[in-house]
């Protein structure tokens, strides 16, 4: 559910015409809907109502500080994976007591920064990392609250590049290793093992992998209790999918129902780390048609957005719905929508049935609010797009368009 819709034969972002935004800010342009973001946060809160819970938005999905501020103002915490994301979160006013820190390669300075900020906890991904955190916390006279990230070896049934909970993946510890690590952590004076964490993958469209994971984790929590380890936080990570095309992913409420009883019985606080489910359908990428081109083999629509702006189609073969900003009745053609970058993988859609658009027209690429701008680059010396947030009739320029000067600013 989002607040981009067609009225008066035009695409609107809440109360603003998308064509007006393109005129004012140029293209390519990321447009986010504040009302959609708020709605998604509320859906998670409602799904976990009655349970002790914390929603920690995954900053990697969309780290714009205006967006983090909006989510923070609703009580959300964040899941971070780097010192840079910690910096963004703190800048956006997220309370450190609502920050959890995941990732397999935390560096010493990042661990120090997180301890100095006194974040809620580290999601520890290896024994070596546990030892490092313990050592740094000892040096700093601090106590690090930790969860161990469990790799439950569950197939999330998603794209292989974004599955994280299989034993061949680099993430987390298996339960045997984790048992030893919990016992070790219990003895370390500068470490307090209070949680269990997992994140099995992204864009999950079925509930079963969550259920299977939850069952494994709960049984593990119960076993640890007999060894004197009292787990108080259960972090189930992110991963709920969204509808890009025709997927019907489980809703936060489905997840809520699955966890409620077990969590209440054990007095656990549930943490979720959604990224895509909050931001994905809250953003579109607006692009202008530069040229149309017919070859003997294919029809191309060449637009001013490219794989440097939205890499998901090139990287994962991901589907993003594309629609006209001002639809007109006309013949449809099977086309590839491509950008100006000199790579054949620079496409936003392939073999897509779209109206025969003309140069100068605007297209909207939907479901681009998560892993869109966040994964953008300056490849081919293309300044990054601007980002705007629409909140009813109000427009905020959340990031100005980069300039040619920005391209070389760090090169002395
Ligand atoms: C540790 C962790 N938490 C949360 C997320 C957010 O995932 P999603 O955007 O699928 O909800 C990710 C990314 O997949 C992740 O790696
Ligand atoms: N970047 C991925 C999701 C990976 C999530 C990170 N663990 C995507 O666009 O779908």
Q: In the residues, how many domains can be counted?
A: 2
What name goes with the CATH superfamily of the largest domain? Alanine racemase
Low-pLDDT segments, ≥5 res: none
Rg: 22 Å
Oligomerization status of the protein chains: single chain
Number of helices: 12
Class of secondary structure makeup: alpha/beta
- Give me the CATH fold name of the largest domain: TIM Barrel
Strand content: 25-35%
- Biggest pleated-sheet summary: 9 strands, mixed
Count of β-strands:
20
Describe the SSE topology.
Layout (H helix, E strand, L loop, with lengths): L3 E4 L2 E4 L2 E2 H8 L3 E5 H14 L5 E6 L6 H9 L3 E4 L2 H9 L7 E3 L6 H10 L3 E4 L2 H14 L3 E6 L25 H13 L3 E7 L10 H19 L6 E3 L16 H15 L2 E4 L3 H4 L3 E12 L4 E5 L8 H5 L5 E3 L7 E7 L8 E9 L6 E4 L20 E6 L2 E6 L4 H5 L4
Parallel strand pairs: 4-19, 5-6, 5-12, 6-7, 7-8, 8-9, 9-10, 10-11, 11-12, 14-16
Antiparallel strand pairs: 1-2, 2-3, 4-13, 13-14, 13-18, 15-18, 16-17, 19-20
The structure holds pyridoxal-5'-phosphate and lysine.
The site of pyridoxal-5'-phosphate has 16 residues, from helix 10.
């Amino acid at each position: 559910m989002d607040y981009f819709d067609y009225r008066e034969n035009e695409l609107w972002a809440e109360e603003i015409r998308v064509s007006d935004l393109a005129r004012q800010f140029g293209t390519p342009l990321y447009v986010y809907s504040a009302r959609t973001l708020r709605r998604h946060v509320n859906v998670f809160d409602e799904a976990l109502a009655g349970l002790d819970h914390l929603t920690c938005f995954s900053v990697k999905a969309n780290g714009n500080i205006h967006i983090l501020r909006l989510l923070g103002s609703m009580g959300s915490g964040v899941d971070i994976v780097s010192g840079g994301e910690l910096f963004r979160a703190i800048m956006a006013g997220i309370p450190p007591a609502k920050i959890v820190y995941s990732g397999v390669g935390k560096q010493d300075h990042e661990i120090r920064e997180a301890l100095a900020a006194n974040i809620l906890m580290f999601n520890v991904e290896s024994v070596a990392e546990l030892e490092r955190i313990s050592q740094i916390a000892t040096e700093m006279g601090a106590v690090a609250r930790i969860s161990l990230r469990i790799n439950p070896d569950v197939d999330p049934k998603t794209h292989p590049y974004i599955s994280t909970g299989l034993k061949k993946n680099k993430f987390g510890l298996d339960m045997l290793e984790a048992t030893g690590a919990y016992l070790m952590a219990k003895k370390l004076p500068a470490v307090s093992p209070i949680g269990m964490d997992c994140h099995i993958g992204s864009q999950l469209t079925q509930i079963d992998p969550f259920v299977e994971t939850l069952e494994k984790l709960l049984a593990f929590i119960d076993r640890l209790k007999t060894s004197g380890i009292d787990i108080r936080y259960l972090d189930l990570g992110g991963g709920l999918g969204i509808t890009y095309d025709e997927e019907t992913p489980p809703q936060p409420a489905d997840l809520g129902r699955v966890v409620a009883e077990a969590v209440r019985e054990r007095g656990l606080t549930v943490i979720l780390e959604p990224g895509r489910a909050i931001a994905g359908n809250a953003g579109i990428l607006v692009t202008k048609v530069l040229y149309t081109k017919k070859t003997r083999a294919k029809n191309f629509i060449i637009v001013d957005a490219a794989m440097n702006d939205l890499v998901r189609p090139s990287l994962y073969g991901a589907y993003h719905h594309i629609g006209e900003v001002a639809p007109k009745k006309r013949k449809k053609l099977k086309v590839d929508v491509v950008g100006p970058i000199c790579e054949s993988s620079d496409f936003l859609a392939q073999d897509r049935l779209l109206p025969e658009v003309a140069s100068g027209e605007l297209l909207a690429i939907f479901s681009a609010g998560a892993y869109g701008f966040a994964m953008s680059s300056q490849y081919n010396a293309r300044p990054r797009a601007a980002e705007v947030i629409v909140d009813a009739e109000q427009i905020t320029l959340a990031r100005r368009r980069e300039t040619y000067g920005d391209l070389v600013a760090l090169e002395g």
